Amino acid sequence: MISGAMRGKGGDALAHHLLKPENESVEVIPARGLGSPDLVGQVRELVAMSLGGRTDRPVYHVHADPDLEIADNDGARARFWALFEAEFGLAGQPVCGAVHVKHGRRHEHRVYSLVRPDGRVVDVGFDFARRERVARIVEHEFGMPGPTPSKHSRAIVRALREQGRGDVADWMEAAGATEAERPVARLSPTERLIQERTGVPLDDLRAAALEAWRVSDDGDSFFAALRERGLDLREGRSGAVVVDRSGTAHLATRLIGAGARREDGTRIPAAAVKARLAGLDLKTHGESNDERGNRAGAQGAEAAPGGPDHRPGAGGDAGGAVPVGRASGPDECRGRDGGSSVDAALARLAARPAAARLRARMRMLGPHRSTALATGLDAVRSGRWVTVPGQALDIWGLPIGERPRLG
After folding, report:
1. DSSP secondary structure letter of residue 360
2. Which of 96, 154, 261, 323 keeps 20 to 30 A from 348, CA to CA?
3. Where in the chain is CATH 3.30.930.30?
């Protein structure tokens, strides 16, 4: 039995994903704790109910796919969800979802809210191993001859014995699950979703990046080799990234390392990739030529002598090159005169999405609201603070040691 899960913000895209017509059939399951009649509305309602939680990923998308050797597919799924909800404490949480039939396999997707009514967030730590343990129990109870291979088999056996399920642990050991070589998935759930969205096979991308690495001997030749293969090299948040034809960025160190492991099992350390790219000037990923040109004009005094650098890897923009590893872009600290004033901060708050503003407001109104802070904010909003000449003020300009007095 295979299961997968991912936390996120939810949204219409998730609902449309569950309703994809590419499946042979889609059956929306009865929702729990939600009143909307359709799946799109149910996901929206679930997200709205979760805004008071202290998390920016309140939605938990889980799927369960029983093995074809299990005759009672519906029974196996029902048993899985019962054990799963007990394991994670999700019984009673709002949930919606759909059952798919694809390539003759019947599997089920569920979308849970991780935010409890009191604002606490459900702990889904180590969820992969915990879901695997639930799946092994279902496989044993529904007559599978052996367990699905898992890299967590030894840990699962120990946990099963601690929970009094020695029958399942014995079954796994008799099948050689704890002695088998640990399997490694070719794609993580996140990588699989990215591949589906972009249409770019990740294995092909890894192979192309590895080939460019092996035919080059420095940063410039690596950049040129990537360009010959329809790829680009940019500066990302965590280092150099390889950009595929869809515009999606992939961390260069991870892409090259994974490509080498897949091809012949060799190891290319991240340090070796960073060393080769050190000093290479790259445009920031997601920044257009116009944006970089405008910023270069504003910072012309900082341009290096000798004119613009047009060598491969420089991006071809005069004065706009950014060395690998240099702090730049939206995360660069520009000081109070560079966009971090109070007015700029207030403008950024006002520009936040409505859902984010509502979530912040609900936190202020929650059970852990600071009475003193709330009283102060209310008084400031009303503009009715009364101050005494010479009275000490705090950094916000409010009287120290005095409760607000109404005028």
Report:
1. H
2. 323
3. 2-145
Query: What pLDDT score was predicted for residue 262?
Result: 80
Phi then psi for residue 121, to 5 deg, are -110, 135
User: Tokens 């889980």 identify what position?
Assistant: 62
Distance CA 132, CA 86 (A): 14
This prediction has a pTM of: 0.54
Amino acid 333: pLDDT:
42
Structure tokens at 251: 């961390």
For domain 2-145, give the CATH number: 3.30.930.30
Of 116, 136, 19, which is closest to residue 60 (Cα–Cα)? 116
Pick the closest to residue 107 from 223, 231, 1 (CA basis): 1
Show the tokens assigned to 296. 């270069």
- In whole angstroms, give the CA distance from residue 16 to residue 26: 11
CB 233 within 8 A of CB 312: no
Instruction: Give the H or E element holding residue 107.
Output: strand 105-113
The set of residues, in sequence order, having a beta carbon less than 8 Å from that of 321 and lying 6+ positions away, is 281, 282, 283, 309, 314, 315
Distance CA 3, CA 155 (A): 17
Nearest of 284, 273, 271, 281 to residue 218 by alpha carbon: 273
Lowest mean pLDDT among 18-22, 61-65, 86-90, 188-192: 188-192
pLDDT per position as a tens digit, 104-154: 889 999 999 999 998 999 999 999 999 999 999 999 999 999 998 888 899
Q: How many CB atoms lie within 10 A of CB 138?
A: 26
Question: What local confidence, expressed as pLDDT, does residue 40 receive?
Answer: 95
